Input
Amino acid sequence: MPNYFVNKNSLAGRGHEVHQQGCPYMPSGRDQVPLGFHDTSNTAIGSARLIYSNSCCCDHCLKTPE
Ligand SMILES: [Zn+2]
Output
C-alpha cells in the first residue's frame, strides 16, 4: 500500500498535485502534506480534497479518477 502526499503549493492551472512516495516529481520535503497510506489513488485524492478542494493527480505517478 503506497504512501501518498499532496503538494502544499498550488500549481498554476492545475491545483495541488497528489503523488505517491518515490515519484520523481514529488515536491521537496517542506512542501509535502502527508496523506498516509491508501489502497488506491482514489481514496488518496479524496483525502487530499478534504484539505485542498482543487487537488489533482500527478500525471506521472497517478491516474485521474474521473
Ligand atoms: Zn507524481
Notes: The chain is about 15% helix and 30% strand. Residues 3-57 form one domain. The radius of gyration is 10 Å.
